[in-house]
Design a protein that fits this description.
By secondary structure, the protein is an alpha/beta fold. About 30% of the residues lie in helices and about 25% in strands. The chain binds S-adenosylmethionine.
Amino acid sequence: MRAMLKAVLTLAVLAWSSVAAAQDGYTNTGLTLDGIGKAYMGRDIAAVMGYQGASWLERPDRAQEEGTGRLLPLLGLKPTDVVADIGAGTGYFSFRLSKAVPQGKVYAEDIQQEMLDIVAARKAKGEGANIVTVLGGVNDPRLPVNAIDLILLVDVYHEFSYPREMGQAMARALKPGGRIALVEYRGEDPAVPIKEVHKMTQAQAKKEMAAIGLVWVSTDSTTLPWQHLMIFAKAN
Ligand SMILES: C[S@@+](CC[C@H](N)C(=O)[O-])C[C@H]1O[C@@H](n2cnc3c(N)ncnc32)[C@H](O)[C@@H]1O
């Protein structure tokens, strides 16, 4: 009798957890290479790149490999815009954004204080006066609400361990009509020399952004050598 009760309870718990997973989009995958053992809407989530790898973000051949100089001109920024570089790392893009919005502001946000220290040290040398560093949480970038014109996400979204919660918080932080520029290695292209868990397909990105109420605006998959630039907007 006891064993039967235990089996019924176990089945009920299993049924409840699969309903919960179906509702929030998360599933446990068990251990995977380079993943965190968790998927979101069917996509394996990658482990966070540690600050120990910071020099890789500043490697001299990055500009040529990733065409980084071509990205900002595609964003249509105004000099007064308020932008957020979420998962800013060493601030590779924050300092470039700072020059693109001289009368605006750049929030350089990351979950690793060590990365933000690198940004602060460079700022202390006189660069990026309009950059504000923000230490975020894994499920909340801690940005002001209805305040941001554009959120830039370069090679970071696939590392979010709580993409739904991060997405909802990013949507709250955007001004009405504000945009997210999602830059991810192209998952459709086997020639892109990056592990699968660090790539995203356009179809997957559209699905995940729709789940947080953002509207797809455009995709550019040809200007950058390896990455999609996908723009999504918050309704006006
Ligand atoms: C591969 S690096 C990219 C850094 C930068 N965007 C660039 O392209 O140079 C990813 C960064 O995202 C950060 N990150 C991961 N999960 C995050 C989260 N939930 N919120 C904010 N940053 C996050 C990591 O700490 C890391 O600094």
